[in-house]
Specification:
The protein is α/β, with parallel strands linked by helices and about 300 residues long. Helix content is about 45%, strand content about 20%. It has an eight-stranded mixed beta sheet with strand order 3-2-1-4-5-7-6-8, with helices on both faces. The longest helix is centred in the last third of the chain and has 17 residues, at about 275-290. It is globular and about 60 Å long. It starts with 11 loop residues before the first helix and ends with a strand. The structure holds S-adenosylmethionine. S-adenosylmethionine binds near residues 16, 94, 139 and 140.
Length: about 300
């Protein structure tokens, strides 16, 4: 029997194809269409983006902000940025036209202008000559084999004061038994049945998790080593200004998770250049975030 491939054997192109298939799948698109926004408040997006926009404004940097919501899907990050900075001009880039259509619909219904959907993959978009002030990756970098290479490419498209924001990616805590147990408890009864079925199926077929995975979503389950990522980004000459681990999810869950050691998501704010005004603003940026986030979380720098 032919040996089944492991994650390491797949190329960035294979992973891209898996993502295109997945995010054009009707069931996935329906999930994003029906996402109950009031239930998932994404408060961390508002707090972090608002703090960054405040920093941008207080340093008197050029307006309007030219931004990209990279792998933006239904536009969660783009819409929050527009609330924090209504003049911002945002390109919403994704490989799934169906996800972009959800965003377009929402923009029309809410009469929000200045968000342009672009159906393109990240690598070809970032290869095009253009300059942006903020490039956001929301729940996105875990869909790439080489997040450092991706962020480096994005940094090449930034203006002098340009910033990259990553948000809502999983840390390696997501592969711990503790996280998986909590996730199981928190899921509804239909979800519990599905998880148990998958678990016993794997057991019966004697398959290891390694051999049985969704290529588009692999790092959702293994997580990303965010400390190594930050060091690697410093190693290629970028300048992390902010790095937090926090408990993403439903509001009541985010109150409990930190006490169980489950600050499982991370966010980074990275500047392209080592600008003294950013360095001296770092504490204010952290203070803004600390004073507004309504749950316990950890600063990693
Ligand atoms: C987990 S969803 C996140 C969507 C959105 N950013 C959010 O926070 O809700 C991941 C998105 O990345 C897109 N995607 C995956 N790989 C991509 C690539 N190489 N280039 C552009 N988009 C990509 C998918 O189509 C999908 O919409």
């Amino acid at each position: 029997m032919a040996k089944r491939k492991k994650w390491e054997d797949y190329s960035e192109q294979d992973i891209l194809v898996a993502n295109i298939d997945k995010y054009n799948n009707d069931a996935i698109v329906k999930f994003y269409e029906e996402l109950e926004e009031p239930r998932y408040q994404y408060i961390e997006y508002y707090v972090i983006f608002d703090a960054v926009v405040k920093m941008w404004n207080s340093l008197g940097i050029k307006q309007p902000i030219r931004a990209v919501d990279m792998c933006g899907g239904a536009g969660k990050a783009a819409f929050v940025l527009k609330e924090c900075s209504p003049e911002a001009i945002v390109k919403l880039v994704d490989v799934s036209d169906k996800m972009l259509a959800i965003a377009d619909d929402k923009a029309k219904k809410s009469n929000i202008r200045g968000i342009t959907p672009i159906e393109q993959d990240a690598f070809s978009f970032l290869a095009e000559e253009a300059e942006y002030d903020i490039i956001m990756f929301s729940s996105a970098i875990h869909h790439f084999k080489d997040p450092v290479g991706l962020i480096n490419l994005a940094a090449g498209r930034l203006s002098e004061n340009g910033l990259i924001i990553t948000i809502a990616d999983p840390t390696t805590i997501t592969k711990s038994r503790r996280y998986k147990f909590f996730e199981f408890l928190a899921t509804n009864s239909e979800g519990k049945k599905g998880k148990l079925k998958a678990f016993f199926k794997r057991d019966n077929q004697n398959l290891t998790e390694e051999l049985d995975f969704d290529l588009a979503e692999y790092q959702t389950y293994t997580g990303i080593d965010d400390l190594s990522l930050r060091l690697d980004l410093s190693g290629i000459g970028l300048h992390p200004l902010m790095h937090i681990r926090y408990p993403a999810g439903e509001p009541y869950m985010t109150k409990i998770m930190p006490y169980l050691g489950l600050c499982w998501a991370f966010s980074l704010v990275i500047s392209k250049n080592n600008l003294p005004q950013y360095e001296s603003y770092k504490n204010t940026l952290n203070y803004e975030i600390k004073s507004k986030l309504p749950f316990k979380f950890k600063f990693m720098i």
